[in-house]
Design goal:
This protein is α/β, with parallel strands linked by helices and about 325 residues long. The protein contains 13 helices and twelve strands. The longest helix is centred in the last third of the chain and has 23 residues. The termini are far apart.
Length: about 325
C-alpha cells in the first residue's frame, strides 16, 4: 500500500521525552511521517506547505502559517502547556480552529468542553500506557517519588502526608537546581541529579522503588510520567486541575491537592489498592487500544469547507475581542 506523506509537527522538547511517539505509531499505519520540530517561537519553514496532511501535537501555528495551509487536512491535539497565541484557550482561539477547519483530538474533559457545541470536528480520548507489574515489596512505611521540574515543590503538597508514615522521599532533579524542602520533620531524602531522557530505565526503576508518585506540574497536557507511574500501580498526588483530575478520580488511585486542602492521605489506600490501580490502568489501556483507530478515521474524514472571505474572520475576531474587553471593564468597576 502506498502511504501518503504526513507532517507531524511537535514541540522540540519532545525529541528527548518522546511524548508524541504513541501517536506516531498510530499514524504510521497509513502515512509516511516527516517530523517537523518547532519551539515556542512558532516559526515554520516553507517545507510544511508541501504537505496535504498535517498533524499538530501541542503546537498550534500563528495565523500567518494557517493562511499558508488553508484547505489542507489539519488536526491538532491541544495540551494545557501548549505554546501558541497568548490568547490561550479563548473564544478567539476556537474561532480560528473553526475558520481554518482544524480537527481536534481531545485528551481532557476541559478541552472537550471547549469544543462541544461549536462547528468543530473533534474526538475525545483518554490515553493510558500499557500496565506492567514490577517487583516491589510494600512495607509499613512508604516512599515517595518527587520529580523536581521547577513548578510544583514539596511545600505545595506535603501537608497531605503524615510524615510519620514516610520512610524516604526520592527527590529526582532534572533541572539541576535542588530546592531544599521546608518541612518540619525530615524523613530520609535522597537527592538525585540526573537527565531522565538519557537514562529512562533508571527513571522507571526509581519510580518503581516508590509507592507514591507526585505529579510535578500544576497543569499537564497528558502527563506521561504520571501515566507511567499509574501503569505500575503507584498512588498519584496531583494538583487539582486538568488533566490530573481526569485520572485521579477516586481516593484509591490518588489524591488531588490545592491551597485549601487539609485532608491527609489515607495510607491504607496507598498500600492496599495497588492491584486496583493496575486494573484501572489495564481497563483504560484496553479501551484506548480499541478506540485509537478513530483518530485515523477522523483525520481522513472529508469535510466540506465554505471558504468565507478572510475579512469575515477578522471581523468576528474584532467583535469577540471587544466583547471580552467590555466584560473585563464591567468586572473591574
Amino acid at each position: 500500500m502506498n502511504k501518503k506523506p504526513l507532517a507531524f509537527v511537535d514541540h522540540i522538547f519532545h525529541i528527548k521525552s518522546k511524548s508524541g511517539d504513541f501517536l506516531r505509531e498510530i499514524f504510521k499505519k497509513e502515512y509516511t511521517i516527516t517530523n517537523i520540530w518547532v519551539d515556542k517561537s512558532l516559526n515554520f519553514s516553507d517545507k510544511i506547505e508541501s504537505f496535504e496532511n498535517i498533524f499538530f501535537f501541542q503546537i498550534f501555528p500563528k495565523v500567518e502559517t494557517l493562511n499558508r495551509l488553508k484547505n489542507k487536512n489539519l488536526m491538532w491535539a491541544p495540551m494545557y502547556d501548549s505554546p501558541h497565541y497568548p490568547i490561550g484557550f479563548s473564544p478567539i482561539m476556537w474561532k480560528m480552529v473553526e475558520y481554518y477547519n482544524v480537527k481536534i483530538l481531545c485528551f481532557s474533559k476541559s478541552i472537550t468542553g471547549f469544543v462541544q457545541g461549536k462547528k468543530i470536528n473533534y474526538l475525545k480520548l483518554k490515553y493510558f500506557k500499557k500496565p506492567h507489574r514490577l517487583k516491589k515489596n510494600i512495607k509499613k512505611k512508604i516512599s515517595i517519588f518527587f520529580w523536581n521540574r521547577g513548578n510544583v515543590n514539596l511545600d505545595d503538597w506535603i501537608n497531605c502526608v503524615n510524615l510519620n508514615n514516610i520512610d524516604r522521599i526520592i527527590y529526582f532533579d532534572t533541572e539541576w537546581k535542588i530546592k531544599k524542602p521546608k518541612i518540619s520533620a525530615n524523613p530520609k531524602i535522597n537527592y538525585i541529579k540526573s537527565n531522565f531522557t538519557k537514562k529512562q530505565l533508571d527513571f522507571i526503576n526509581l519510580i518503581n522503588k516508590s509507592d507514591i508518585f507526585v505529579c510535578p506540574r500544576y497543569k499537564e497536557g497528558i502527563g506521561m510520567a504520571q501515566l507511567e507511574a499509574l501503569s505500575m500501580g503507584k498512588y498519584l498526588i496531583g494538583n487539582n486541575d486538568f488533566t490530573m483530575k481526569d485520572y485521579i478520580i477516586d481516593p484509591k488511585i490518588g489524591m488531588l491537592f490545592d491551597n485549601n486542602l487539609n485532608k491527609k492521605i489515607d495510607i491504607d489506600n496507598v498500600i492496599n489498592y495497588r492491584d486496583y490501580r493496575l486494573n484501572h490502568a489495564k481497563k483504560g489501556y484496553i479501551k484506548f487500544e480499541k478506540d485509537k483507530n478513530k483518530i485515523l478515521k477522523l483525520f481522513k474524514k472529508k469535510i466540506n469547507f465554505k471558504n468565507r472571505p478572510l475579512r469575515f474572520f477578522y471581523f468576528k475576531l474584532i467583535i469577540i475581542f471587544l466583547t471580552i474587553k467590555r466584560k473585563l471593564f464591567m468586572l473591574s468597576r
